[in-house]
Design goal:
The protein has 3 domains: about 100 residues, Rossmann fold (3-Layer(aba) Sandwich), CATH 3.40.50.20; about 130 residues, 2-Layer Sandwich (D-amino Acid Aminotransferase, Chain A, domain 1); about 60 residues, ATP-grasp fold, A domain (Dna Ligase, domain 1). The termini are close together. Helix content is about 25%, strand content about 30%. It is globular. It is an alpha+beta fold.
């Protein structure tokens, strides 16, 4: 029997995850599934419904979305796959109550977006970190804990936005702290600036069943290199994709261990090299993502088909 798949994203001209949305849809459609776009901003949690738009492949394998809205019952779908931009704890709690398979579980997705949670969830995998809104405490950390250089982050920032580097020799670092904390009204994440940040980071895609920790596997990876005289390697900040032949064993171990603790089926990890206390080069976790945004610069689209196949063959198997 065919499966009913709801890909969740705001209805509009573009998709939050760009062409990745289309590739996921194609993967499910190629397997004979009934696939719709579900607009999360129209969900009525009282009756469990939302506006939906049918997705299809037409002549010459062209992806088509209907502009005619219908109303769908959320629990009628075998899978709700979140590809949206919704980051809200109340929404996550309510969506978690919908009895279907969520890719990914809503509250784990929210925690992945909130970088403050890493201190409790992944303390052994991240660089030295503090969470605070107190400017004096943050300034003290800059001088005494982080050796004069640190990164400060909006907990919900993405694509390199809301991330700043502070240096004790910079005359405006206190002003940056005032702005990013909204004059001590907002908690931020502060971390020691990692030793090899100028070399860039690696994006690693991990897939597995949250009920089976040993099922997690790395399905793709690539490097990201910052532009000249820059330390941000996000593609939206001028970074470039770097092809990689392999990952070191410590990088593999880090990614699999983080994925197993994440509560997510699909985990996109940003990792970066640093020095440990013994002066040894080791990998550290920078960020977790609930969506596998690894189709960089339009590359690797064939890899995305692994995800629908895994869901259908491993998580929805009869």
């Amino acid at each position: 029997m065919y499966k009913k798949i709801a890909l969740m994203d705001r209805f509009g001209k573009n998709f939050t995850e760009g062409d990745n949305f289309k590739h996921y849809a194609r993967g499910f459609l190629d397997r004979g599934c009934n696939v719709v776009q579900l607009d999360p901003y129209t969900i009525n949690f009282e009756d469990g419904t939302a506006k939906i738009y049918s997705l299809d492949l037409r002549n010459n394998n062209i992806f088509v979305r209907s502009n005619k809205e219908k109303v769908g019952k959320l629990e009628s779908y075998d899978v709700i796959m979140d590809l949206s931009d919704v980051v809200d704890p109340v929404f996550a709690i309510n969506l978690e109550k919908i009895n279907t398979l969520h890719i990914n579980p809503p509250f784990a997705t929210y925690n992945s977006a909130d970088k403050r949670t890493y201190v409790n969830n992944y303390p052994e995998f991240i660089p030295r970190t503090i969470i605070s809104s107190d400017i004096s405490e943050l300034e003290e950390a800059l001088y005494d804990k982080f050796g004069g250089e640190m990164i400060v982050k909006d907990p919900f920032g993405s694509c390199g936005n809301g991330v700043e580097k502070l240096d004790i020799n910079s005359p405006n670092y206190r002003k940056i702290l005032e702005n990013i904390t909204n004059k001590e009204q907002l908690e931020i994440v502060a971390q020691r600036f990692m030793n090899f940040a100028h070399e860039g980071s690696k994006r690693v895609a991990v897939l597995g069943d949250i009920k089976d920790p040993e099922s997690y596997k790395i399905i793709h990876f690539y490097g990201r290199k910052p532009s000249e005289k820059n330390w941000k390697d996000n593609l939206s900040q001028g970074g470039k994709v770097v092809e990689l032949d392999s990952l070191r064993q410590d990088e593999i171990n880090l990614c699999l261990n983080v994925a197993r603790k994440s509560g997510l089926y699909t985990v996109g990890l940003d990792i970066m090299d640093d020095l440990n206390e013994e002066g040894k080069r080791v990998s550290k976790l920078v960020e977790t993502n609930a969506v596998l945004a690894f189709n960089a610069d339009g590359k690797y689209s064939n890899k995305l088909k692994i995800v629908p196949n895994f869901i259908l063959d491993n998580l929805l198997k009869d």
